[in-house]
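Anyone? Bumping this.
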Amino acid sequence: MRRRVLPGLTLSLGITLLYVGLIVALPLGALIFKAASLGPEDYWRIISSGRALASYRVTVLSAAAATVFNLVFGLALAWVLVRYSFPGKRLVDAIVDLPFALPTAVAGIALTTLFAPNGWFGSWLSEAGIRVAYTPLGIMIAMAFTSLPFIVRTVQPVLEDLDPALEEAAQSLGGSDVAIFRKVILPLLVPALLAGVSLAFARSLGEFGAIIFIAGNQPFETEITALLAFIRLEEYDYQAAAAIASVLLITAFAMLAVTNFLQARALRYTARS
Amino acid sequence: MSKYLRKAKPPRVGDAPAVRRSLIAFVLLVGAVLILAPLVVIFVQAFSQGFSTFARTIAQPDTRHAIFMTVATALIAVPINTAFGIAAAWAITKFDFPGKRLLTVVIEIPFSISPIVAGVAYLFVYGLQGVFGPALQAADIKILFALPGIVLASMFVTAPFVARELIPLMQAQGRDLEEAATSLGASGWRTFFSVTLPNIRWAMLYGVVLCNARVMGEFGAVSVVSGNIRGQTNTLPLHVELLYHDYQTVGAFAAASILTALALVTIVAKVILEHQGAGRAGRPMLAGPAVEAKETHQ
């Protein structure tokens, strides 16, 4: 055991524990306490009601679709940013972070304006018979927007560090570009892709601000779970709000565990290669 | 010169001109639709009725008050959060104590939680149906539906911002410099200000910039705890929503354009700070565990 020479343990740890306790643990504890005070039957009735189940379905399916979209687009974006040079590349690289920097409500009204039936894209799409705003497709687009940077930013550094010798070896053995990408490059990217996917998916499950403007918010059809919790609050149904919020909380903890596992694995993987 | 060098090397995977051009075109096209168009539409809408209408909407008392609320929230929440981030990083990287790993995980929790859940949780602490609600009402202290509630909810959603920038950096820097300073007789504060702070200032500023952007832009958590009272507890993002639902499109986008300008300033600051070595390449701005199991001192 090393002797402590540095001062300030009591002060710094005290501030940390006080802040974490008051700001983070206390409210989450209060929420869990409130949900737990419901009793198993009431709790189950609320979280398995038809409207709640429909909201889980909308949320999870839209989040999955948005994540798949970002898996393809995010990987392509990371690839283009790392492997090619073209005018304006640094600008593109910087603007990838816009979804994180832009307040979600602002993103929400901007996307709604673009995709509404009379918007720039919406009018064009509605001629083709595709409705985006006020449908699950709109929810998906809002989720895709807010979670875009996750996959780009987890894949980018791994692509940068990729050893060119691996590709050269594969090329000298006569592999085609497609084959080398599939068999040599992609497997090396999988851990980072998985970590990015879990982060993007988790973010999409909890997203609120960007979605509620574009979703239309019809119960059973375009109502996300976070909004249902909010509506129950506005109806002064605090128990239902607590129960539904607790479902989101438990999901978030589960996703946190998955993300931590995948990210630790991705880091170990990169450290080894 | 580089031209010859490139010629000497075999083309890398995906360097065929057709592949290269089509991938760049695909990325730029989707990027233009998904990222650039929202940015452009905000300003187009905000100025759709000319600059004077824009200026008039911004100058409305409700909008001015919302700007004031947003700035006031940031002025309180960001410094407290920064102090917490420094304290947490100091405790976690300069000392060994049981439960250290758990503490770092707990600090990261707010990142994973839906802002709505955060807002609802705060209601059950300070609301009338919450733990302290009745006692607070008896004492006539207003936390919810007032500035303190907005500040608290903002502090929740941004709790990890500064800490997550400092912890990995201070862990990598180790304890030797600080230990040398104290053994030469410097006080704890002196050691921090003369030895530690100069080494972490860019990373700290990076965390502060991101924290500030999130505090000023937070919507979900704040919308639960603020009560959305016009001219009283509306922050700027909430005011955007209110105007938008009132069909005051120009007003909503004018207010939104202020927040968008803030976002653009944030991105520029981020790029500048990254040139100073802040922010670790390859970590998403708002995600993931900040600390790995590696310890510099065992």
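Late reply, but here is one note on the structure posted above: The CA atoms of residues 18 and 150 of chain A lie 31 Å apart.
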